[in-house]
Specification:
8-stranded mixed sheet; single chain; 15 helices; 36% helix; alpha/beta; 4-stranded parallel sheet
């Protein structure tokens, strides 16, 4: 049975009063000291003004009012790395691994990514949308206002197109910002076994140009790893993306140090994701390129990994760190971005401010949305969440709860008192 997402609610236009802001998550010239009440003005789906309640310009005095009731205001959350659209699921593999089966044994039994590819190819576009809607709803319920959705379970033009079209439709249905990423170089499809170069040629010469021409691609990603694609194959995809004017991202250094981060940085990558085995040279290259490090604690947890990403080195270098669910059916069936923030603190030792920036400001940068999302500021999209909490730390502290938040998404009240 398909869970339908409610249509976006009424317009959020007007003056939102009596808000508390979080240092670092609002424009810096607005007071965020304890007890300093702020107001923001929404007009035509954007934040027109933000400042102290007492300083509200006279031009806005006659607008409708929404009482913030002293709630904590943050930017809308951003899930910057997901594989949300796919057919079927792989819960049976979870049980097999718990019973002692290795990854290789699961794959030989027809499981692993091949299982998801088979199910995705068998599903229609409508079926993919229907299956993804409840997953998206779980993220939206927590205040997510922008989400990246990758392809990569089709591994053929028709099926990659189907995934990307489903991603676009999800954004339209839910009234949420969706950035679609082409991940055709996710794995080698069964029909290309032993012919990885032939497949990469197909990705670069046929699949990517066709999908880009159809307006379905916002960025291009590659899984660069010993079990996936080489540095040379990755660079071939990056060159094809660059020729089409598309930004790149990379699944990098998850299982070993392949040097992928250094390569990605040379191409000005938006982000390098996973990065448990990231080297000092990779960190320096990312810093110089302005590339975001995307931390994926859900995959780290599910795979029972013990090799921590180099958090302190990233911190010392000033590389921005985003946090995401990496929702996928095999290694991170996570549907709570707040839980990932908690896990980033507990497993990776992020501070609360780092975790909150990781699911807002830095996540926006990882998607190339830093000028419109991830910060409460005049001129930005009206995507924000009002939290019934006393302290910002509670957003990452609690897990498993669903606080009664007011969520404004794309300038409309998606949930809360007036929704």
């Amino acid at each position: 049975m398909t869970q339908q997402i409610p249509l976006p609610g009424p317009s959020a236009d007007g003056v939102w009063t009596d808000l508390r802001l979080v240092d670092g998550l609002a424009q810096p010239d607005v007071p965020v000291l304890a007890g300093a009440a702020a107001s923001l003005v929404v007009q035509q789906g954007r934040i027109a003004w933000l400042g102290p309640c007492a300083a509200l310009p006279a031009a806005f005095a006659g607008l409708p009012r929404q009482a913030g009731q002293g709630r904590l205001a943050t930017p809308g959350l951003i899930d910057c790395h997901t594989h949300l659209v796919y057919g079927g699921h792989r819960s049976h593999e979870f049980a097999l691994r718990l019973a002692g089966a290795s990854y290789e044994e699961v794959a030989k039994a027809g499981g692993g990514i091949v299982s998801s590819v088979r199910a995705t190819r068998a599903a229609t576009e409508d079926e993919l949308v229907a299956q993804a809607l409840p997953r998206l709803q779980a993220l939206l319920d927590e205040g997510v206002c922008a989400v990246e959705i990758k392809s990569g379970y089709g591994l053929a033009l028709a099926h990659e197109r189907k995934q990307l079209r489903a991603a676009r439709r999800l954004g339209e249905i839910a009234g949420v910002t969706v950035r679609s990423t082409f991940l055709g170089a996710h794995a080698l499809p069964p029909e290309y076994a032993g012919r990885s170069q032939d497949y990469i040629d197909l990705v670069c010469r046929e699949m990517l140009p066709a999908l880009a021409e159809e307006g379905l691609v916002d960025a291009v990603d590659v899984f660069c790893e010993r079990i996936a694609f080489s540095l040379a194959e990755t660079e071939q995809v990056f060159r094809a993306a660059q020729a089409l004017g598309l930004p790149v991202k990379l699944h990098a250094e998850q299982l070993s140090d392949m040097g992928g981060a250094r390569l990605a940085a040379r191409y000005g990558a938006l982000s390098c994701d996973h990065i448990e085995h990231l080297s000092a040279d990779g960190i320096a290259a990312m810093k110089a390129a302005g590339t975001v490090a995307v931390l994926l604690p859900g995959a780290y947890y599910t795979l029972r990994d013990t090799h921590l990403p180099p958090i302190q080195a990233l911190r010392d270098a000033g590389v921005p760190m985003a946090v995401s669910t990496d929702h996928n059916p095999g290694t991170s069936p996570a549907l709570s971005l707040r839980l990932m923030a908690n896990m980033a603190c507990m497993l990776f030792r992020l501070t609360v401010p780092e975790a909150l920036a990781g699911i807002t400001t830095h996540a926006a940068r990882a998607l190339g949305l830093q000028d419109s999302h991830g910060l409460i500021a005049a001129g930005r999209a009206a995507d924000f969440v009002l939290w019934p909490v006393a302290d910002a730390a509670e957003i990452a502290y609690w897990f498993g709860d669903r606080p009664r938040c007011t969520v404004v998404r794309q300038g409309r009240i998606a949930s809360g008192p007036a929704a």
